[in-house]
Amino acid sequence: MAITQHKIGSGFTARSTADDVLAGIDLSGKNVLITGGYSGLGLEATRALARAGAYVIVPARRPDVAAEALRGIPRTEVRELDLADPGDIRAFSDRFLETGRPLDIVIANAGVMAHPNTPIGPGWEAHFAINHLGHYALVNRLRPALAPTGARVVSVASSGHFLSDIRWDDPHFRHGYDHWLAYGQSKTANALLAVRLDALGAADGVRAFAVHPGSILTPLQRRIPREQQIAQGWITPDGRRAYGFKTPAQGAATAVWAATSPLLDEYGGAYCQDCDIAEPATTDDMLVGGVKPWAIDPGSASRLWALSGELTGVDNFS
After folding, report:
1. Which of 55, 136, 183, 267 is catalytic?
2. Residue 9 domain-assigned?
3. Chain CA centroid to CA 68, Å
4. I need a surface site. Which of 132, 171, 189, 225 has the fewest CB within 10 A?
5. What are 60's strand-pairing partners?
């Protein structure tokens, strides 16, 4: 069934912060896992969720760096994980499942942008492998831990999905590489992951959502030269963020809202933006946002899920 995209009047806006959307919500006793939860938007989400009482597990490729970033934040735990390594994902998941702890919320937040053409493992394109396949495999392997009475999975996509649908004939860019198209494809995949995961998991209480956090300057843009960021209108010549860009605390808000808001109980699979369900995109302006039809198509979501299961060798939902 197609996802119906329309605002539901959340009461929040593009300027709301992660703390704003959690006002009055008590997450005491809840376990949250946030990939990339020690930098940029992920760090802001970790701080806000911990302040609301949650216990936050932060998988990190650089655990020492993560531990330093999380110093002083209560109820946080760092565990080593490289999303580019299927064996590491398996080992991480097995170790976590051995603890017997449930997961109430998973925020698939980690990612790369403008990554050079460096095929991973069996030749997977890096954006597709890290941003999508790594999270697909992680969520599937952690399936036994997802609380059957209301777990939520939030997939952090972006308006970068405007740049590319799934390249079904060449998802790994073996015939010509463009890092922006590769990034765009991975963000479409992030959105489609939520569509299919919700369809498969809803009967067991597992709901999934995709979110566009908005335009924010974070370490995600570290590979993009300053001159290019100025040319693209991301920053001003004196280094300030451009008009319309959010602060990291505002950028984290939509993912945190999607992970916790009771208003979304009946809208599983939706693509969200500015702390509400996004409207269909009517322009190609990524700053305005919205969602393109290829990012919420159930047929494409099912096809991508099958491809991902074939590539990673794991599918614990179908």
Report:
1. 183
2. no
3. 23
4. 225
5. 80
Cα separation, 260 vs 193, whole angstroms: 19
Tokens of 61: 């490729």
Give the DSSP letter string of 122-156. Answer: TTB-HHIIIIIIHHHHHHHHTGGGB-TTT-EEEEE
Both structure tokens of 45: 């989400």
8-17 pLDDT, tens digit each:
999 999 999 9
The count of structural domains within the chain is 1
> Mean of the per-residue pLDDT values for the chain?
92
Q: What is the CATH number for 292? A: 3.40.50.720
Which two tokens mark 261? 């808001």
Residue 243 domain flag: no
Q: 266 in a domain, yes or no?
A: yes
Q: List the domain range (segments joined by +) for residue 172.
A: 18-217+248-308
Q: Average the pLDDT over 254-258 and give the result.
A: 98
**What's the pLDDT score for residue 149?**
75
Dihedral angle of Cα 205, 206, 212, 217, to the nearest 10 degrees = 120
CA distances from 193 to 102, 201, 224, 244, 282 (A): 21, 12, 27, 28, 23
Residue range 87-93: mean pLDDT, rounded:
98
pLDDT at 314 over 60: yes
Measured distance CA(303)–CA(28) in Å, rounded: 38
Tell me, yes or no, if 183 is annotated catalytic. yes
Dist. CA 35–CA 108, nearest whole Å: 6
Which segments of the chain are extended strands (E)? 31-34, 55-60, 76-80, 105-108, 152-156, 207-212, 271-273, 276-277
Rounded to whole angstroms, the Cα distance separating 223 from 116 reads 9
Residue 111 lies in a domain: yes
Give the model's pLDDT for residue 236. Answer: 52
Q: Is the separation of the CB atoms in 252 and 259 below 8 Å?
A: no
Phi, psi dihedrals of residue 108, rounded to the nearest 5°: -85, 90
Q: What is the value of pTM for the model shown?
A: 0.92
